[in-house]
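> example.struct
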């Protein structure tokens, strides 16, 4: 019972603290897709991976060829020669497995090459995010594509555009992935325009006029219906 009470109080306290603090999120994958250096690095990694994969496939073809040759010549070989050929094939298979592990295994050559090419770019992205967080006085910045799963996030907390701006990748037309971003203060949106009270009043007046027009039309129909009934 004490543990349950503690969890409830802790959750309430955490909610109050979080409410008082400013937070935001950025779409890391979208930002990286806009960075030419990342695209070039990824293409180089993909090319290296493809070449290594082809090399491994060629080695497997050589082993298959050795197997077929052995099966054709097996009846002509002595037991000693058979064992020798079998050992040669087994050794080749072992070499290919070890080579594949060195290339594609955990912390293999492909992993190290990716770290070498992409890590500096990720560091640049991290520095730009830190810069935006300090400028906007954010207490928390979540990565939308870093396993941070949530069903809904208000786009007003999306600081992706600011990070792009800090990286020198700002565009006259917003780069945001979604187009349903609500209107916010111009001070909080790069290149954004704040909706004026006059615009809001005009929209409200138009809506009221539409409602009023609908009511008048309905009233006219009712009166017309009553008139026809009386005539009958």
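> example.seq
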């Amino acid at each position: 019972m004490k543990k349950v009470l503690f969890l409830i109080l802790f959750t309430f306290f955490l909610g109050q603290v979080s409410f008082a603090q400013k937070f935001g999120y950025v779409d890391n994958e979208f930002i990286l897709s806009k960075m030419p250096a990342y695209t070039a690095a990824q293409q180089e990694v993909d090319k290296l991976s493809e070449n290594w994969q082809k090399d491994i496939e060629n080695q497997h073809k050589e082993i298959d060829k050795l197997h077929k040759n052995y099966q054709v010549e097996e009846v002509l070989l002595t037991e000693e020669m058979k064992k020798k050929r079998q050992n040669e094939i087994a050794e080749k298979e072992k070499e290919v497995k070890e080579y594949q592990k060195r290339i594609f295994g955990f912390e293999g050559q492909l992993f190290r090459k990716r770290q070498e090419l992409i890590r500096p770019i990720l560091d640049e992205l991290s520095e730009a995010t830190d810069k935006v967080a300090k400028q906007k006085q954010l207490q928390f910045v979540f990565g939308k594509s870093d396993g941070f799963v949530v069903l809904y996030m208000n786009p007003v907390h999306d600081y992706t555009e600011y990070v792009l701006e800090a990286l020198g990748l700002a565009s006259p037309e917003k780069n945001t992935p979604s187009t349903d971003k609500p209107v916010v203060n111009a001070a909080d949106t790069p290149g954004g325009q704040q909706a004026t009270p006059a615009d809001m009043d005009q929209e409200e007046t138009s809506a009221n006029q539409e409602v009023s027009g609908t009511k008048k039309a309905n009233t006219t129909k009712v009166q017309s219906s009553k008139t026809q009934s009386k005539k009958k």
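> remarks
The helical segments are 2-20, 28-33, 36-73, 79-104, 109-135, 160-166, 197-231.
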